[in-house]
Every structure is written in structure tokens, then in C-alpha cells.
Amino acid sequence: MHAVVARSTLHDFERARKILREEGIPRISQAPGFVAAQWVMLDENTGTSMLTFESEEAARAAAEMLRANPPGGDAITINSVEIGEVVERA
Known about the structure:
Elements: E1 2-10, H1 13-29, E2 34-43, E3 46-53, H2 56-68, E4 76-85
Antiparallel strand pairs: 1-3, 1-4, 2-3
């Protein structure tokens, strides 16, 4: 398994959350190889997400989709997108 880890700046948390629920979650959960996802608000302006996929190929495709069509409009800025192997899971 591989994960896509994205770090973001939240400009309007409530609007970003609404977009995530209405657009982001339905879109990512339909992605090939999708396993699970978590979105974490670290403080009022910073968020991190981890999207887990069955393969590196599926994770790379999702990362490209995220880079090419970032969600959230002006409510959120995605600062970085990284891909890594999931070495353990509980």
C-alpha cells in the first residue's frame, strides 16, 4: 500500500470542510485503488491529509489528480503532496 500525504493552509475552515464533504470525499473515494483517508486540522490555519491506496500506481494517479485539480478554491491552499509506502497499519 501507498499513501498520499498533503499539507495545506486553511483560509476558511468552514467552507473548506463543506467542500471536502460535498466534493472531495465523494471524488477521492471513487478513485481506483482507494482504501481509506483521514483529514486532520492541526491548528486553525493548517491541515494534513493522508489518503491510502492499494498500490503506488494508484497513489501516484491520485496525487496527480490532486495537483492538477486542487479542491477548495480559495478556502484552502495545498502546499505539498508527497507519496510514501505504508509500512505498517493497525
